[in-house]
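Lab notebook page, bench 4
Experiment: in silico fold of construct C2
Operator: M.H.
Input chain length: 44 residues
Purpose: comparison with the prior construct
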Amino acid sequence: MPRHELYDDDGSTEREQCPRCGDSFLADHGDRQHCGKCGYTEWE
């Protein structure tokens, strides 16, 4: 998904940003959220 599709018209987004990197989004894999840049993972 292109980055511009992640943002609404007002600049907000529903995706969580990585708490470690701060400049990348966490990918939703159903049972976890994962940062592709640093490898940070949140298990649900």
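Observations: Residues 16-44 form one domain. The radius of gyration is 11 Å.
Next step: discuss at group meeting.
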